[in-house]
Amino acid sequence: MFKIALAQINTTVGDFSGNGDLILDYLTRAKRAKAQLVVFPELAVCGYPPEDLLLKSHFIDNNLKLISSLAKRVYGIIAVVGFVDADSKGKIYNAAAIIEEGSIKTVYRKNELPNYGVFDEKRYFSQGNFETNNGLITVEGRKIGVSVCEDIWVDVSAHTKQAKGGAKVLINISSSPYEVDKLKKRQELLIRRAEETKTTIVYCNLVGGQDELVFDGASMVVNAQGRVLSRAKQFEEELLICDLDTTENPVAQVLEDSEEVYRALVIGTRDYVQKNGFSKVALGLSGGIDSALVAAIAVDALGTENVTAISMPSRFNAKATRQDARTIVKNLGIEFKEIPIKAIHNVYLKVLREYFKGLPPNIAEENIQARIRGDILMAFSNKFGWLVLTTGNKSEMAVGYCTLYGDMSGGFAPLKDIFKTKVYELARWRNSQAKGPLIPKSVFLRAPTAELKFNQTDEESLGAYEQLDKVLAAYVQGHQSISAIAKEPEQVSYVKKTINLIDKNEYKRRQAPPGIKITARAFGRDWRLPITNKYKE
Q1: Annotated catalytic residue, options 46, 121, 149, 517
Q2: Residue pair 391/423 in contact by the 8 Å Cβ criterion
Q3: Cα(458)–Cα(400) distance, rounded to whole angstroms?
Q4: pLDDT of 208-263, one tens digit each?
Q5: What's the Cα-to-Cα distance from 387 to each of 14, 284, 286, 524, rounded to whole Å?
Q6: What SS3 class is residue 83?
Q7: What is the pTM of this model?
Q8: Residue 405: which domain range?
Q9: Domain containing 17 — which CATH number?
């Protein structure tokens, strides 16, 4: 019997006290389960990713003090813990401490430093030297190799050298962010590595939300034949105990696609709100599908007692949408406030009348309404200390179909990386999980509209969302050209118009609140289009 405990924990960047307590708690639980070895995620001591906190020498010192303090508490079990190591020359390393009987026995420094997408590790860390820190240890006669995250993704790296050095078990500590289909790719990789090296792979991943990133956990153990011996749950803290000498270990089911994305949005919202010191949130509830879904996510993340929905109807809001807003609130059981904005809008129009004289009404008068709503939401935020959740989606954000300082006002955007068609899919899934529909059928059937003027629909400006989202996926996610996207001549005009909207609205996206990343190319660090940009295809 050889038991390894995978401590799939939810750390917070910079919370050395909290992270230390969490590590000690899981260490104690692993000992109680009679595990010989317990493994923690990448940079568990300081949280991941610490970004420019790594430029502060006192941050590094606090991290080193904590790992030293933790080491003195490790007895009767071996612990592998991610932390920031430092050398005498001031260089720092993304590292794993191997701790036994009250001291750090050896340190492995990450060899492969990712520098793509959301990763900027070459900005901070120096590369480890395998010849001086090979990560090889022996536990009860078994040779084990320890590596960190990216090391196992590169074809010939530490894992191959450790296997050639006689390791039969390879431990990889990771903080791998969630993306749609990422778990499948990750598991396929681990199976391939296990078969290539003829070793058992022990992979411990982080779980939880950190700013725009969500970590999905799903830590696992794969044997030399490529069989998944054990797998932890997605999006939940867990101490996974795996006996390498038996096939009788827990293997959590992989979530279905819609549930997986929804769970990512819930944990991402919960952790952003709570880790930043908030307990309650507010959102503008229009009666449309986006705000309905955000309200459901907020309730599942924080509880009904911590969510307030505010409806702010104008002269252009239909009775049906106002009624749907009330129904959604009743179904979710959350606090509701209705504040009509017609009188406030009239004051604006009166003040501006002489300056707008002779000019027809246009987007200026429309957007004033959105900005009034933003002001009201932020007033409640300032007065009661609530975090405002914005309700816009990726389709709107892509083409700028949103109002600066209006519906973009707020602290966090749960749907920032969710296309409109996906919003409907997630809302249907959430309805299917409830005893009765949370979101009324009429919300799904009604044509999407901003209701900033009479008889307005989104489609008159953007085209059908099914069509729009296909273009967005090809251009934003796939980097495709106009000629590649427009398969037929009649599509060229629409594709050109859409891409032009994407390109010219970068200035808006730069001012949007952070939101949860669920795709490989989310707006933010994945997407770095220059605002000042004359390039046209």
Answers
A1: 149
A2: no
A3: 12
A4: 999 999 999 999 999 999 999 999 999 999 999 999 998 899 999 999 999 999 99
A5: 21, 12, 18, 21
A6: strand
A7: 0.94
A8: 261-509
A9: 3.60.110.10
Tally of residues, the chain: 537
**Residues 227, 369 share a domain:** no
The answer to the question of residue 313 being in a domain is yes
* Dist CA 8 CA 275 (whole Å): 18
Are residues 102 and 211 located together in one domain of the fold?
A: yes
Element (H, E) at 169: strand 169-174
Characterize 248-260 residue by residue with b for buried, 16 or more Cβ atoms within 10 angstroms of its Cβ, and e for exposed.
ebebbeebeebbb
Q: Which two tokens stand for residue 117?
A: 């997408």
The whole-angstrom separation of Cα 150 and Cα 169 is 17
Q: Are residue 201 and residue 331 in the same domain, yes or no?
A: no
Distances (CA, A) of 120 to 50, 51, 206: 11, 8, 18
> Tokens for 518?
């669920």
**Among all chains, which residue has been given the structure tokens 């006689």?**
166
Token digits of residue 289: 């599908």
Domain boundary among 189, 213, 247: 247
Long-range CB contacts (within 8 A, 24+) of 242-245: 242/3, 242/4, 242/5, 242/6, 242/202, 243/1, 243/2, 243/3, 244/2, 244/3, 244/4, 244/169, 244/200, 245/1, 245/2
Q: pLDDT by residue (tens digit) across 248-305?
A: 999 999 999 999 999 999 999 999 999 999 999 999 999 899 999 999 999 999 999 9
Q: 42, 100, 179, 451: which one is catalytic?
A: 42
Residue 516, CA atoms < 13 Å, CB-side half-sphere: 31
149 is catalytic: yes
Burial 448-470 (b: 16+ CB within 10 A, else e): bbbbbbeebebeeebeebebbbb
514 is a domain residue: no
Tens-place pLDDT, residues 403-444 = 999 999 999 999 999 999 999 999 999 999 988 889 999 999
To the nearest 10 degrees (0 to 180), the angle between helices 492-504 and 465-472 is 70
Q: Which amino acid is at 131?
A: E
- Those residues whose C-beta lies under 8 Å from the C-beta of residue 371, and which sit 6 or more positions away, are 403, 405, 406, 409
Give yes or no: residues 217 and 278 share one domain: no
Of the pLDDT bands very low, low, confident and very high (cuts 50, 70, 90), residue 448 is confident
Q: How many CB atoms lie within 10 A of CB 247?
A: 10
Catalytic-role residue among 3, 46, 100, 110 = 110
The answer to the question of residue 255 being in a domain is: no
Q: How much is the pLDDT for 143? A: 95
Residue 28 sits in the same domain as residue 173: yes
Told to judge if 335 belongs to the known catalytic residues of this protein, a careful annotator would answer: no
Answer yes or no: do 463 and 504 share one domain: yes
26, 40 Cβ separation under 8 angstroms: yes
From 205, 221, 247, the end of a domain falls on 247
Distance CA 156, CA 141 (A): 26
- Structural domain total, the chain: 2
**What string of H, E and C letters represents the secondary structure of 215-256?**
EEECCEEECCCCCEEEECCECCCEEEEEECCCCCCCECCCCC
242 is catalytic: no
* Residue 120 belongs to some domain of the structure: yes
> Quick one: CA dihedral 87, 92, 93, 99, positive or negative?
positive
